[in-house]
Write a structure and sequence with these properties.
alpha+beta, single chain, 2 helices, 96 residues, Alpha-Beta Plaits, globular, 26% helix
Length: 96
């Protein structure tokens, strides 16, 4: 089964929410639909960036799973941008 990643740049947070609290929310929202392989948070150019790697049967399913995950974070954080990528021969390629 292919591996995918959803990466989200975290924007405005609800009052009292810390950036590191967004990652478990995204991870759980994705885990409700599929197997989560890994998750990580990093600060890139001054902005929190959360990444969750997961499995899906095909690209369309991966996009829908990622979209559900992003929607799950909206109660606590505004996504500035997000992207879904697929592992292809050791590289991460964006879904078209």
């Amino acid at each position: 089964m292919p591996s995918y990643r959803v990466t989200m740049i975290v924007g405005t947070l609800e009052l009292g929410v810390k950036p590191e609290e967004v990652l478990p929310t995204l991870t759980q929202a994705i885990a409700d639909f599929t197997t989560v392989e890994a998750s990580d948070i990093a600060i890139v150019q001054g902005s929190p960036r959360v990444t969750v790697r997961f499995t899906a049967d095909h690209d369309e399913a991966a996009f829908l799973i990622a979209e559900q995950g992003i929607d799950g974070t909206r109660v606590s954080a505004e996504p500035i941008a997000w992207q879904v990528t697929r592992s292809v021969q050791g590289r991460w390629e964006p879904l078209a």
